[in-house]
Amino acid sequence: MSGTDDRYAVLVERLRKVALLESCGSVLGWDEQTYMPSGGAAHRAEQLALLAGMAHHEATDRELGDLIGELESEDLGEPGGPRAANVREARRAYDRATCLPRRLVEEISRVTTLSQQAWVTARREKDFPAFLPFLEQVVALKREEAAAIGFGDGGEPYDALLDHYEPGATSSWVDGVFSPLRAATVELLDAIRGSQVQPPVDILTRSYPLDAQREFGMAASKRIGFSFEEGRLDVAAHPFCSGFGPGDCRLTTRYDEHHFPGAFFGTMHESGHGIYEQGLDRQAFGTAMGVSCSLGIHESQSRMWENFVGRGEPFWIHLFSEAQAAFPEALGQETRERFMAAINDVRPSMIRVEADEVTYNLHIMLRFELERALIDGSLDPADVPGAWNDAFTRDFGITPADDSEGCLQDIHWSAGLLGYFPTYALGNIYAAQFFVAADRAIGPLSEQFAEGEFGSLKEWLNREIHQRGRQCRADELVEVVTGDGLSHEPLVAHLRGRFGPLYDL
Amino acid sequence: MSGTDDRYAVLVERLRKVALLESCGSVLGWDEQTYMPSGGAAHRAEQLALLAGMAHHEATDRELGDLIGELESEDLGEPGGPRAANVREARRAYDRATCLPRRLVEEISRVTTLSQQAWVTARREKDFPAFLPFLEQVVALKREEAAAIGFGDGGEPYDALLDHYEPGATSSWVDGVFSPLRAATVELLDAIRGSQVQPPVDILTRSYPLDAQREFGMAASKRIGFSFEEGRLDVAAHPFCSGFGPGDCRLTTRYDEHHFPGAFFGTMHESGHGIYEQGLDRQAFGTAMGVSCSLGIHESQSRMWENFVGRGEPFWIHLFSEAQAAFPEALGQETRERFMAAINDVRPSMIRVEADEVTYNLHIMLRFELERALIDGSLDPADVPGAWNDAFTRDFGITPADDSEGCLQDIHWSAGLLGYFPTYALGNIYAAQFFVAADRAIGPLSEQFAEGEFGSLKEWLNREIHQRGRQCRADELVEVVTGDGLSHEPLVAHLRGRFGPLYDL
Description:
Chain A is mainly alpha-helical. The first copy, chain A, has 21 helices and three strands.
């Protein structure tokens, strides 16, 4: 088996090289969103296109393909074990990459770099027409990508994009998962809207000085387990987390003096992503065992820390007095009970990243619907604002006043991330299942949180989820970790359990 | 000539690709110095080594060599013109690169990345022994590099390194330039030390709030012509300027509340570098016509804005009242005359980057002496602190209290920049010659500065120096721009002219 060992070692080395090169692009991408002066956009687009092209060149090298082919017919030890998983995922990545010409990869990189800069300005200035030419290019390129990759019987072009972020997922499968969640969400939302309870939301829009927000957010992030020796928190127009590789993971958020939840829960959310990145097996860098399982699983981690932990009573039993000390003007005279009600206010609102836990998934479903139409060609990019506003009014009963709180609110389309949105709602579903399993295994978590103890949950997640890398698919991981199949019911039960008492339902 | 045109276009495209890849490394290097969490060092070293190796691979491609060879025998238009210069410098870069094995290039990149991180800690903790293993590795690698590149008849290994930063320069040539400057410096310094004048230096160590320093420094930088639409100013352990490419140039400085000149003149200095980078012909990116002439010429630009402009009376005629408004506690009751005397205080001091204009060059000559000895093997890295302190005491009559104000003060050796230091003193010499020529051509500059007008100097530098790229060598550029040969005399005249009156000599 020595020949196999040698070949496997060469495979790992080649995969690491691709990952290392891609991680250089991550640094440049992070810089683009955080510190790059506006004049640098055109040069940055050229830099990123070159790196993307070179990484693609390495990832599609025929020798790599041959090596994978040889290893597939050899004994890699335990079926489904780490080696087998790495070879299986190397095949998957190779096959996908070889569908795409280098020209297309470079062009997508170049266009999306410029497009993200254009989006920042267009969003600020509520100017969709200025963004439209970029959106048209991005959609055309992603349609070309989808066509090059293809999709299975009975599928649709969007599946090709979706599968990149959530391996194995198809549009119709997502439809099947989302439908009962939508029905339960609408029912719960109706009940809440019929309630007489009026959460004191004015608490959240008092004066929260920016420096104090930053300090308080970082302290919370550290408390739940994000390491600032191996990471940072900066400001960006759209919050994100970028793991560069072992020992370096960057979070961003955005601050508004008169909106406490935006930066704080944004920081908790990105910290959840960061804790995942920092929890990956660093020895396995570059292979499937050293990356996240899927974006849905990634999102399950951020949503868990943001919502299941961060918006829960036990968390604030521990932290509320510190919040009062950090924001004496806003919270000094407040009670924890009123604060809890305010941060769990449920109501239709325009901005996804600031949405409550109940309406959040409706935001996702709307994007899923529009993206599918953009990719199958039935929706013209020029018609996006109208389609957005119509669908939004239908689902939420309110209409965006302008495109900055409508179709321009998210960075994703400018960044070419079509097919990504559904993973957010899948993440909520996964998170609920994982949280129940964690509580069963190492709980009661509520008692630990109330004492400021978050380490056992973090370690459980490290062991049960992060360290498994991409060894299995997301739905398989849910089964392995929880012993149950994928189901929206734990999420619905969580929502009913949290909001029923708050709204006297 | 169409075949030549085609080949030339291919050459430019290949050179641009190398430069683009190198510029990705610049972004990662800048991030390493400014924002990278300490845990990211090992991964960053791998990233930078890969990029350096890939750039080296492209830069040494045999097809590139063949292309240069073909073009050398063809008609490139005007001899010494832009095309001829680009091919000449492409040859120079290719020949140098092909002397070096990729392994060595990658290893230097990897080791110097880790070494810079170790240096930051060692400097802070005044712990030379902790840094020594890195210095040993760096010196060994640079000696290997020097041996691989070689040097001319009667030369020495150090020449191979020097030539990289200052094309055409040799150690003995530098000796010849430095000797008379040293003699004149010692004479002037003796006269100043014999003067009864005592500049009121306490002015500079009062309280200068950090935010106000940052704002005042950025305003001054903008005033002299650095564009913040195409650049930034951040904080780093050792100030530097990094031009990433067209439209993006980053400056750094470091702040000390009780030392005004450090950050301010550091910012002026780096702004001078930045104005050069921003003044390069962006159409020529990647070719010799689109890069700086030499590091000595680069330094001439930073030293000109820092000293010839920034420490001169006319600059402060315009700016002193703004400084008083920015720092009311420190300067509100001060006169411009006393402030001028303080910022032009001359006295032997430990830190090069904060040295006065007279002693500055002695700092350089000391480093030049030690570096030559490290590279020819006559000085062991372990003996650097002793050798440094002996030479320092000999030249300055004072002895560093610890290595953080001695041999650990500069980042250069940790970054592998051996052969770089002499360009600083050469820069002072060039700067004096250029400043005289500019004053003759577009002056009197002093009157313009007194009115806050710096645009005509900037435009003259853009035209006469920046836009010429690397069309000719540094000493040739001096002749072209000033009409005179290289000479230390204008610098000595400047120093006598500035410090004679201040010290009643």
